[in-house]
Amino acid sequence: MSSEEKTHRNPFEKVMPEEARQHMHAAREEMRQSVESMFPPGFMEHRRAARKEMLKAARSLLDAAIQRLEQREHPTETKA
Q: For residue 14, which of 23, 25, 3, 2 has the smallest C-alpha distance?
């Protein structure tokens, strides 16, 4: 991982002590687990699957928009 990527992943690295970041990470994980425990078993898996399908739908919309742009740039090519 390049230093630029690492900086992007850890924006608070230079302004927050490592110990504080570790505690915040642990707190976030505990909060995530407590929220997950409020839902019935299987809910999180279904939620993740639904999110994945929504992302695929967004990707499909973007792909169609890109295809339309490319067709406008090259109108003599046959349509797919």
A: 3
Distance CA 3, CA 14 (A): 13
Give per-residue pLDDT as tens, 33-64: 999 899 998 998 999 999 999 999 999 999 99
Burial 21-57 (b: 16+ CB within 10 A, else e): eeeeeeeeeeeeeeeeeeeeeeeeeeeeeeeeeeeee
Do the Cβ atoms of 13 and 7 come closer than 8 Å? yes
With tokens 């898996």, the residue in question is: 45
pTM beyond 0.70: the answer is no
Distance CA 44, CA 46 (A): 5
Q: What is the pLDDT of residue 79?
A: 54
